[in-house]
Amino acid sequence: MATSTRIKFSEFIDLLLARLYDLDREGETAGYFDLNAIKNELKVDIPQRWVWDAGRVLQSRGLADCLFAMGGKAEAVIAGEGRLYVEEEQGTGIIKEYHQQPQNYVIVSGTANQVVVSGEQSSVTQTMTIEQERKPAFDLLKQIEEKLKQDQTLDPGERNDLLADVEMIRGQLRKRDPNRTALAAILEPLSQVSSIGGLIVQLIRLFNP
Predict the structure, then answer these.
(1) Helical pair 197-207 and 135-150, crossing angle rounded to 10 deg
(2) Once rounded to an integer, what is the mean pLDDT over residues 182-200?
(3) Sign of the alpha-carbon dihedral angle for 147, 152, 154, 159
(4) Is residue 145 within a helix (H) or strand (E), and if so which, with residue range?
(5) How far, CA to CA in Å, does 168 sit from each of 44, 153, 165, 174, 200?
(6) Taking 50 as the threshold, does the pLDDT of residue 182 lie above it?
(7) What's the pLDDT at 5?
């Protein structure tokens, strides 16, 4: 197989699962694996949008447990059903081909340490990655705070409550998988404040591209 060969979406899903199986078996510590990193080590041509969609399919079929974050980031760990799927070489047939000639599909044999994105050993690195990835959202929060501090229509108690809500949003954004229900509950009343309504709309758009 030549580099950048195109494959079907169904084959990409099977190949992702086969790689998750290998990474799970190689890993010394439990953790979720970055599906984008796995995509980048493959010798096949994969549209970027397929990564998120593939994670959704793996999750819905119970083959893997997946986490999704802003910016199209998707992480996964293989589930028990997924292990059986790979061991029995189910699906499109590409798993069997991968087992027979892995060098045809993988540029460099990955290790768990290269693509692991969560777990005890990588927590500091992951926090930095989240801060950088979500910089536009954090910048908006700073602007929102400044607007609230300058809004003379707010009494001190109301201003402090609103600033506390902003800090809660910041705390959620520092998590790998923010609680969207909690964010929605906080953002809705903030959007009613005239001085920051436009900035809140921009923030919501970042959550729902």
Answers:
(1) 160
(2) 90
(3) positive
(4) helix 135-150
(5) 42, 23, 5, 10, 14
(6) yes
(7) 66
Tell me the C-alpha to C-alpha distance, in Å, between residue 91 and each of 20, 96, 208: 15, 9, 32
Closest CA to 76 of 24, 10, 129: 24
| DSSP alpha helix (H) spans, 30-122 | 35-40, 49-60, 80-87, 94-100, 112-115
C-alpha R_g of the chain? 21
Model pLDDT, residue 85:
96
Residue 7: how many CB atoms within 10 A of its CB? 19
Mention every residue, 6+ apart, whose C-beta is less than 8 A from residue 202: 140
CB 61 within 8 A of CB 69: no
Strands 5-6 and 33-34: unpaired
Report the chain's terminal Cα–Cα distance, integer Å.
Answer: 36
| Positions of E strands within 55-153 | 64-69, 73-78
